[in-house]
Amino acid sequence: MDMPVNVPVDDPNADTEWNDILRKHGVIPEKPPSPTPMIEEALTEARRLAHENRLEGKDLDELAELEDEEDEDFLDSYRQKRFQELSTIQSTSIYNEVYPLTKPDYARDVTAASQHSFVLVLLTSSSGTNPESQLLTELWRELAQKYGDLKFCQMRADLCIEGYPDRNTPTVLCYREGEIRRQIVTLSELGGMGTRVEGVEKVLVELGAVKQGDVRLRKRRDSGEGRGNGGIRQSERKGGREEDGDSDWD
Asked: CA 242, CA 250: separation in Å to the nearest integer?
């Protein structure tokens, strides 16, 4: 009776003549292909893309500073790209302020308007003492001025939804094409009282409301800009308070 023979194998993955013989006779499996070439290829491609896109996100002033370092034709192509982006932003920036909402006009000013652009509704605290609500109200003004192609709206939560808990404010409803694409309840997922414009911008990018390479993402306003008076349209307010309007939806 034949007895099985134990063949000594130190390291089945080692590149040795003995292992080659064993693989040839099926004693040990073929050595799997090395991932090194694929990794090196991926790294090479990543470096190539990084080099080609090295000017992405730079504004016109930053491009001008690179005139002595970059090929003129290459720089000029990016200048033209930036000019086109700025032209598009200028032509589509038709809002540039926070619009107060009333219940009777909600369907027109939000649902219908979202067929043409993103509409972002901020539901604020009814008490006026909610610090998160106060913070996001300030950021809302800044964002509205910065992203004029998006419609930023604001309304007291209890005037929008009867009995809406004040603890759930601020609440943000993001509309597009008549539907709510995302809602944010309080600032917990944005950083609480540490929420900044950049945190809201990240949400806008995730939504597709702002493109990843938008030149405005690189611009940072001075700390006082975009705050204070002039943020919300006063012509549609009476005595500094939003009109309640009809208590029923359209």
From this structure: 18
Q: Could you give the CA distance from residue 196 to residue 69 in angstroms, rounded to a whole number?
A: 35
**Dist CA 77 CA 63 (whole Å):** 11
pTM of the entire predicted model:
0.57
Residue 114, both tokens: 């979202």
CB neighbours of 21 closer than 8 A, spacing ≥ 6?
Answer: none
Amino acid 240 reads G
Give the torsion through C-alpha atoms of 53, 55, 57, 62, to 10 deg: 170
What CA–CA distance (Å, rounded) separates 167 from 14?
64
The b/e string for 186-206 (b: 16+ C-beta within 10 A; e otherwise) is bbeebeeeebebeebbebbee
pLDDT tens for each residue of 150-162? 999 999 999 999 9
